[in-house]
Amino acid sequence: MFDQFDALLLARFQFAFTVSFHFIFPSFSIGLASYLAVLEGLWLWTGREVYLNLFKYWLKIFALAFAMGVVSGIVMSYQFGTNWAVFSDKAGPVIGPLMAYEVMTAFFLEAGFLGIMLFGMGRVGRKLHFAATLAVAIGTFISAFWILSANSWMQTPVGYGINEAGQFVPEDWWAIIFNPSFPYRLVHTVLAAYLTTALVVGGVGAWHLLRERTNKGARVMFSMAMGMISLVAPLQILAGDMHGLNTLEHQPAKVMAMEGHFESHPDGAPLILFGIPDQEAGTVRNAIAIPKASSLILKHDLDAPMDGLDTVDRANWPYVPVVFWSFRIMVGLGFAMLALGAFSLLARWRGKLYEWRPLHRLALVMGPSGFVAVIAGWVTTEVGRQPFTVYGLLKTAASASPLEAPAVAASLLTFIIVYFIVFGAGTGYILKLMAKPPHRGETGPQAGPDHPIRTAGITPAPSVDPARTLGVEA
Amino acid sequence: METLFDLPTLWAFVIAFAVFAYVVMDGFDLGIGILFPFFAPGPERDSAMNSVAPVWDGNETWLVLGGGGLMAAFPLAYAIILPALYAPIIAMVLALIFRGVAFEFRWRDPGHRRYWDVAFTTGSVVATLAQGITLGALLQGIVVEGRSYAGGWWDWLTPFSLLVGVSLVIGYALLGATWLVMKTEGAVQDHSFRLAGKLALGMIVCIGLVSAATPFLSGAYYERWFAWPQVLFTAQVPLLVGLCSGTLLVGLVRRWEYWPFLLTLALFALCLLGLGISMFPHVVPNAVTIHEAAAPHASLEFMLVGASVLIPIILAYTGYAYWVFRGKIGHEGYH
Q1: Is B329 on the interface with A (CB under 8 A)?
Q2: Is the ipTM value over 0.90, yes or no?
Q3: How many domains does chain A have?
Q4: Region A404-409: what's the mean pLDDT?
Q5: Would you say B176 and B28 are in contact if contact means Cβ atoms under 8 Å apart?
């Protein structure tokens, strides 16, 4: 019995570890693919060389990030079966087809057009190349669409029946795909990806501005990134608020955990800013709270009654301390991003966007904050769904494979070692590319005889120079 | 009894097709990884790697489709098979990580290129071995209780599964060698011919051993192969294997350039057909049939709509890409 519990915990940790690592790459490449499309579009429209240089500069980084996203994604498609067999058996009829559609629609587009995008510049014509870049950007979005639809269905399951074997049987695909939390989660996650990319681009731009204030490429990327953050950060806070209201409607226990509301508040619930949640005692110690503010935010009424976790069966509580803190990390970073955007607007208004060093330093420090916020948000929503895999219907403890603890412990340890070596090296290579300033006549991934022909995908037609492809003279 | 072409049967064919497409496409590029140490560092290795770099991740998409498709179409089979084969499957995905990033990283970091080359070879060998062991362990049978796997976590490790694992390494290496025979000239091609000759003999021995062992794994296999009158049909498979093997050896001796690769593919197709004869209509041997494991009608139908449009498009595109890359490496005809 104890062993069973251990294997379950290890399996949960393994899934959390591998999915978090995997999630880092798409959350960057979704935004970056769109940014590349914008850069190329601007280049075609204005003819300014700086946009082309920036396109090629970020394309090299995109190639690496995309490769790591591909290989860490293969792990995910098998991990459902290896570690969550009962879940796969029961929810497979609903979740499986959504993921199969992801493979058939998104992977096809990406694998098909990535080759042209990476190496086809100047070989297939500008318009066709731009179409390829757009196709890759759309492919990353379609991928997010299906996988978030599947994830959202696990949070807010609808449109299903249950057969005699205990399997979820799809009854209404439209309802399943567009389940109640999906539109909110899709908007919130895609905006997060855009924000994450803008912060990375802004951080890289700031780094080069701090060293060489006149670098044209650094100026343009910094300006674009700050503009994007000024626009998207407030939108994201708005989208997050709406997503929260949707969660309150469908998964109230998750919101209670986020808010730290162990007790019910019949006449206005306080907004707990900080405190130490104590799951055992069912209380938040040393809480600093604003009276009635939580009711105002969630119900738009100071005196609205709010239920607490005391109305929920204790066996169905999520682990509050994790949800409570990850939510605060996400929201705190969200407001820091808002502040960065406002700071940059002030600088822009004063005409000091490229001069104010404190702004550049802040942007540099905030560079990786998008990743932290994305992971924190992910933890909030996934741990907040506990103790269920399919919310309210299938318990996590009843979803796992019948594995022995040593097997899961061994695989978990191997995953940790391999991921740190492989993705550590890959991140190092990305940082090395970022450390080089953008310059005139930037070369794409195809430069030099000593480079790979491409990272991924199938390269069609004349997009690849055969001589370079083969590493020998034709 | 269901009709022959109901939805579950159709999906069994779709997934078998995805597995074969994967073996056809990723087999030779894993094989080149396996043979990598036999090539001299420098231009020889670079060109061997670059001959598969354009296609490797498109190839691996078939593996994702195979895994994802199995979960979607036969969730019960996915839920039983994957935990049963936990160690080899985890080893396979980890090996594919090393191998996949090596394509990109070896160029980014010339100082450590040797290490990424080792990662490329090790990843290719381990991934192939794990795939073969997975297949062997599935064939020898899995302990099932109710709707889940009921065996231990070392059950997969037997002499038979290891035999299938080693056989697949030899088979993929043969695909890689015959691919290079087709795509190269001069010294590399001579080298590949010599390797292919030895590997072809090895593969024929392996097919013989695995085929001889399989009917005795369980009563059902023996029945399916030797019962009258279907033996008239099943006997064609070993006959064709013999024919292809003989032709392959003749072709390698006479230095045919295209046929060895195609004949090796034919051998793989016949092995898959043999596997189908052994297993059908089970998806987990002796335990779960494809109809028992099949997802509800609504799931299969929903996916079939997409698959029937999208898979032909993917195939057309892939075929076109291979057509573009036809011909010899570094030869005028390559354009």
Answers
A1: yes
A2: no
A3: 1
A4: 83
A5: yes
